[in-house]
Design brief:
The chain is of the alpha/beta class and about 260 residues long. Helices cover about 30% and strands about 20% of the residues. Helix 1 links the parallel strand 2 and strand 3.
Length: about 260
């Protein structure tokens, strides 16, 4: 099986390039996936490939809201894995979906730092100057960024920390800001932290401080009737795939996590 992972920061510019046309017979699909799935989706595609060596699955990662916009503008994605279930629902409402959205996971927000011991740290503590710059994903189009803003507001410190915020275009770039030292703390996806065990330290953001990160996928209109896309959609709902997602800290529909 041939597998290519696009860069976390790579976003297709729908207005700058024509979309290539793929043969209906070609065993190839392109998946749009939320950036929190970067490592987990790589494992899912790799595992699927063991039983489907003739299939080619490409993955483009980005902020869910930006991926939604690209699909609506005609980007050639057969499947859309969103970090927020509202975005697949929007595809349905706008006539751009080829099926019904399927919940596949619930994500978790954590506070991570490469240089500060985060054990026992509460969200309200981030108001202290010692935590320096704080990275969050852009709340305008990144679900984790929206939840980070909600958590900071619920903790009563949004106005205090706002001048120290650094915004990533998606949650993967937010992690990079915290890893590189451009920010001392990042409010990031637990799935990306677990992909690099032993690096830095983190503390959970209580789920009570923000809306749930319920994640769903949907076949796009382009993906409807595509045998490979439909088969991979079924695979993601089966036990082996669920085990992979649980290994990256996702809670699963119907129970099972961590």
């Amino acid at each position: 099986m041939k597998f290519h992972l696009g860069s976390c920061l790579f976003l297709i510019a729908a207005t700058l390039m024509p979309w290539p046309k793929a043969s209906a017979q070609e065993q190839h699909i392109t998946i749009a996936a939320a950036a929190d799935l970067h490592d987990a989706m790589g494992k899912l595609v790799e595992a699927y490939g063991h039983d489907h060596p003739g299939a080619k699955l490409d993955v483009v990662f980005g902020a869910s809201g930006m991926l939604l916009t690209q699909i609506e503008q005609g980007a050639p994605f057969e499947l859309f894995f969103s970090a927020d279930s509202s975005y697949p629902q929007q595809l349905v409402a706008h006539g751009k979906a080829g099926g019904t959205p399927v919940p596949y996971a619930e994500g978790h927000l954590v506070m991570w730092s490469a240089s500060i011991d985060m054990h026992g740290v509460q969200v309200a503590d981030l108001a202290q100057p010692r935590f320096g710059r704080i990275a969050i994903a852009n709340p305008q189009h990144a679900p984790y960024g929206k939840r980070a803003e909600q958590a900071l507001r619920a903790a009563g410190i949004w106005d205090q920390v706002q001048p120290r915020l650094v915004f990533g275009e998606n949650i993967a770039q937010t992690v990079q800001f915290a890893q590189s030292g451009n920010a001392q703390v990042g409010l990031v996806a637990e799935s990306l932290v677990l992909a690099s065990p032993g690096k830095g330290s983190y503390a959970p953001v209580p789920a009570s401080l923000h809306e749930p990160l319920r994640q769903s996928f949907v076949l796009t209109k382009r993906g409807a009737g595509n045998a490979l896309a439909e088969d991979f959609a079924r695979y993601v709902q089966q036990a082996p795939a669920r085990a992979i997602l649980a290994g990256y800290g996702f809670s699963l529909p119907g129970g099972g996590e961590h």
